[in-house]
Design brief:
181 residues; alpha/beta; Rossmann fold; seven-stranded mixed beta sheet; three-stranded mixed beta sheet; 10 strands; 33% strand
């Protein structure tokens, strides 16, 4: 399996502070504009590799925005999701990743070429679990992430940027909304 880095020159900016706290560690900060560039560059890397997925499988929740963007960019209409819980907070996680319902219809993906999409391969355990599961049913499985960290147990096939920093994504940089009073 060959790993392809989509872009090294247009990667995200880094910020030495978070929420105005001077002592916060440096973090990768991805904007929506950078996300759009990254998604297109990753899709182009997949296309250039010659891999043509029959289905894009986004790992929920972090992989949902990228999965949709890559599916559109590749012209792949079949899109599925797998909901995996592993992180429970910043650098807090369960002992092992856990699949949550609803589950993907494995009969529908049997024999297909699948592109598994997630936002980050941090420990890589979530992506490794999904790749292994998909490999039981699919003819060929490739993985793509926005970010990969050096400690990851899996080296994704397509990576936009490698970092060892905590990443701030534009879709999860704020607390969930609550009803207006």
């Amino acid at each position: 399996m060959t790993e392809t880095t989509a872009a090294q020159t247009t990667g995200p900016t880094t910020s030495p502070t978070t929420s105005g706290i001077q002592d916060a560690p440096a973090r990768e900060v991805l904007t929506y504009e950078q996300f759009g560039v990254a998604a297109r560059e990753l899709a182009q890397a997949v296309a250039d590799s010659g891999f043509v997925p029959d289905v894009v499988v986004a790992v929920a929740r972090g992989g949902l925005p990228l999965g949709g963007a890559i599916a559109y960019a590749l012209g792949t209409k079949a899109v599925g999701t797998l909901n995996v819980e592993f992180y429970t907070g910043i650098d807090e996680r369960l002992p092992d990743p856990v699949l949550l319902p609803p589950l993907l219809d494995t009969n529908a993906i049997s024999g297909l070429r699948a592109l598994v999409v997630d936002d980050v391969a941090d420990t890589g355990e979530t992506l490794a679990l999904v790749e292994k599961l998909m490999g039981r049913y699919c003819q060929d499985v490739r993985t793509v992430v926005l970010y990969a960290k050096p400690r990851s147990v899996i080296d994704p096939h397509f990576v936009w940027k490698r970092t060892d920093r905590w990443i701030v994504f534009p879709w999860s940089d704020r607390d969930p909304v609550t009803p207006a009073v």
